[in-house]
Amino acid sequence: MRTYTIALAGNPNTGKSTLFNTLTGLRQHTGNWAGKTVLMAEGEFTYGKSAFRMIDLPGTYSLYSNSADEEVARDYIIFEQPDVTIVVLDATSLERNLNLALQVLEMTSRVVVCVNLIDEAKKRGVRIDLQMISKRLGVPCVAISARNKIGIDALMEQVEKVASGEISPEPVQIPYSKEIEEKVKELQPIIAQTLGTRFPTRWIALRLLDGDEGLLKSLRERMQEPTVPVKRERIGHEQTICH
Amino acid sequence: MSTSSIPLSDAATGSQICLDRIEVQGVLRRRLLDLGFVPGNIVEVVQKSPLGDPIAFRVNHTMIALRKEESSLIFGEYVGGDSL
């Protein structure tokens, strides 16, 4: 049985951790990531025929380099590349929450949008058109109440489909001004040449245009990682030749 | 530039302002944009501190307090509320 990795992203106080605890049954341990004092909980569970490893990313309003929390959450999605990222939205303040959803959709297509606190929204008379959200964003969208365990089956059904590749979502691409789009087109082949196609080149191009120093630093660190052991090996080889 | 555009720090309590430009720079600019301080969005001036700084604003159904340092660099026009 394959274990799929799921990341939970969302604004603070959207019920990410409640969903996490509902799914993992509190079998979590918190870990310190990337040398920063930002904690992410990690837990494992099985659902249907699949096993999942779930990572509760720090709650953030954004995934640009504004703070250590945001960098950790961003780096996880970009570098660890989870099989599915669940974006948890607060049904009672969708407008603010959707900003993060759009940012995640620029980074990865393997996304399931999860509108949490749906019972609370209903109480306040908020009606949410899930089909329309799903259609506009181009990814599955499910309403849940993590607290009252409503909609969890429907959510996991979509997560499993995206994880296994049964559905390949095609997220909406946010168009920018002509000037920016031209620069993105110019940068994309250079990025693909330097980093390969493992990373979302459009997103990286946009961050470079944004002057995101934090991302550049993370990229440089990751780029150096695989080259170091290779170099060491060569030195060792030459040394044996000398002997 | 529009002559009726005023900094958020000068807007009256209870008024609603449609933002037209944000002159804050750097990381804080990014943060403010993420929180909904974007051109075209409407911000309500909720409350001023006893000494007038900071000021609480409501943007995207969320209350956010800004220092004058920042709110004086965010501009917009009155669109409603009790501005007078």
UniProtKB/TrEMBL annotation, chain A:
Recorded GO molecular functions are: ferrous iron transmembrane transporter activity; GTP binding
Q: Whose protein is this, by species?
A: Brevibacillus panacihumi
Which residue numbers delimit the FeoB-type G domain?
3-165
**Which residue windows are transmembrane per the record?**
none
Name of this protein: Iron transporter FeoB
One GO cellular component assignment for this chain's record is: plasma membrane
Signal sequence residues: none
From TrEMBL, chain B:
**InterPro entries given in the database record:** Fe-transptr_FeoA-like, FeoA, FeoA_core_dom, Transcriptional_repressor_C
Supply one GO molecular-function term: transition metal ion binding
Does the keyword field hold Disulfide bond? no
Q: What Gene3D superfamilies is this protein classified in?
A: 2.30.30.90
Keywords, in A-Z order: Iron
> In what residue span(s) does the Ferrous iron transporter FeoA-like domain sit?
6-78
Q: Which protein are we looking at?
A: Ferrous iron transport protein A
Organism from which the protein derives: Brevibacillus panacihumi
